Protein: 8-oxo-dGTP diphosphatase
Amino acid sequence: MAKKIIRVAGVAIIDQKENKVLAGKRNADRLVGGMWEFPGGKIEKGETPQEAAKRELEEEFHDEVKIGPQLGKTVSYEYDFGIVELTVFFAKLLTHNFDLIAHSKVEWLSADQVANLKWVPADAPLVKELAKTSFKDINF
Ligand SMILES: Nc1nc2c([nH]c(=O)n2[C@H]2C[C@H](O)[C@@H](COP(=O)(O)OP(=O)(O)OP(=O)(O)O)O2)c(=O)[nH]1
Structure:
């Protein structure tokens, strides 16, 4: 049987003053738990990827974000449970609650630190792209 397609939207939250990006460590009991990811989740019916990303941030951190340009291209990655199609946007925080609901911790990283973490496998090409990005130069 063909594997199901799972459409996912995530955010690379950046702090343009500090030139840093936020990574979230998935709670250990979730699929691909314990690895680092772009906060976000599955796109629901009728939602744009941007709307999904905003909604997930409200659910996962109780925070509002402003969505900016896309990071790299949408990546497609085959897991045993399905094929994840992941679209990630740069985003800025409008609030700073950071209630940890789906994550055990978050970390702010400079571009040269992003490759040091163990990211969810699908994220590899996006992490590579991030490592080359000057976050200060992203336009919202
Ligand atoms: N959020 C997020 N998910 C990712 C990334 N990379 C990656 O392969 N995934 C996968 C893991 C999951 O199989 C899927 C996202 O599902 P999720 O479990 O985060 O989504 P959700 O919040 O809608 O979950 P749920 O209510 O169904 O538990 O995409 C990433 O960087 N961020």
